[in-house]
Write a structure and sequence with these properties.
- Helices cover 40% and strands 16% of the residues.
- It contains 15 helices and 15 strands.
- The longest helix has 23 residues.
- It is globular.
- The N terminus is likely disordered.
Length: 374
């Protein structure tokens, strides 16, 4: 870290290698603090959102190993020491963390925005299913050290923020800390341009998800085999993709990647969203609601914050194809108030998130200056 006075705000994220909800949160943080320096362990400009390529990104030494940018799970055993060596200047440093960024060395006030405590430590069976045997072995051997590292990193924070009430409870259980719940914004603008996808007619069910085992996309795909009169569009990439395509009936279409304009069209052209994922924050039902579309989702985790049963969607209790079929049929037979759905999404809009982050930064800067002045 330099000897010059720290900049007011800096932002740290685990790794910028994919296009997911956590990366959208970082983009919203950058809207709150456009001049903030941005730090991460690995940066793959082609794999993540293009907006990150428009600014300078400070990376760890791991970023020199190009294969890790495309396959960040290979780096999991190396990320703790990498963040130990990552020095960050800032009067206030926001750490967007699912298990690593909160370990960065900072010379100011550390505010952790926690998407979830580390899944590979506390939800290992669910999270590591797609990881190779070498990664599983390394993390198994290193687990006692990583748990100590993780809890020491958490203790170094001056303030904790959680993205959902479920994650707040997890933070309290794992770290013994209280956290303010600050839901991330949904980040979609229904009034922005839309681009239809060639050959796809409106009126389908939509599932937007990374293709990982714990996302339970196979349960949604399996449900569509029992709903031959309906169509499903799955948007996302991941190591479970080949298996899911092999399972899918002819009424399921996969799109590995779409542009933001195309994603907006998909939401607008859909009948409803379906998700059986174990989500820490239930982002996609809010994106669907912004377009006036209801959602059928798993009664678990972050979805409990973002879906109001009977008003903006319906729950099923298990990621089971039979349950999903029953709930989807009830959802499609019900009437939904589009204005109520949009009003619900507005409560999670980006301006509220940005305003609260700025309030927190101001409060932490004031604390830092008071302590500096004795």
């Amino acid at each position: 870290m330099s000897d010059v006075p720290p900049v007011p705000v800096a932002i740290v994220h685990d790794y910028l290698t994919q296009r997911g909800g956590a990366e959208r949160v970082v983009l919203a943080m950058l809207k709150a603090f456009p001049q903030a320096d941005l730090y991460t362990s690995l940066f793959d400009a082609e794999g993540t959102f293009s907006a990150f390529g428009e600014r300078e990104v400070h990376t760890s030494t791991l970023d020199r190993v190009h294969v890790l940018r495309r396959h960040h799970r290979l780096a999991l055993p190396l990320l703790a020491p990498a963040f130990d060596r990552l020095g960050v200047d800032g009067t206030v440093v926001f750490c967007s963390s699912s298990g690593w960024a909160h370990g960065a060395r900072v010379n100011g006030r550390k505010v952790v925005y926690c998407h979830t405590p580390a899944r590979w430590l506390y939800q290992r069976d669910r999270y590591l299913r797609e990881s190779g045997p070498a990664t599983k072995l390394a993390l198994g051997v290193l687990r006692p050290y990583l748990v100590r590292w993780d809890r020491r990193a958490a203790a170094s924070a001056d303030r904790y923020l959680a993205n959902s009430t479920a994650v707040r409870a997890r933070i309290r259980e794992v770290y013994g800390r209280d956290a303010e719940v600050l839901p991330p914004p949904h980040g979609v603008d229904p009034s922005a341009p839309q681009e239809p996808l060639d050959g796809l007619e409106p009126g389908f069910l939509l599932c937007v998800s990374r293709l990982l085992t714990y996302k339970n996309v196979d349960a949604v795909v399996g449900a569509l085999a029992r709903l031959p009169e309906e169509r499903l569009v799955v948007v996302g990439t991941g190591p479970d993709g080949s298996r899911l395509r092999a399972l899918a009936a002819r009424n399921v279409t996969f799109f590995p990647q779409v542009s933001d304009d195309q994603l907006r069209w998909l939401y607008a052209a859909s009948k409803a969203l379906v998700s059986a994922s174990h989500e820490d924050f239930g982002l996609t039902p809010l994106e669907a609601a912004a377009f006036g579309k209801p959602a059928a989702v798993l009664r678990w985790g972050g979805f409990l914050d973002t879906v109001v049963e009977g008003r903006t969607g319906l729950f099923f209790d298990r990621p089971d194809a039979s349950e999903i079929v029953d709930v989807v049929r009830r959802l499609l037979e019900s009437s939904w108030d589009e204005s109520e759905l949009r009003a619900h999404a507005d409560r999670f809009a980006e301006p509220r998130f940005v305003a609260r982050l700025r309030e927190i930064a101001d409060a932490e800067i004031e604390i830092a200056y008071k302590r500096a002045c004795g």
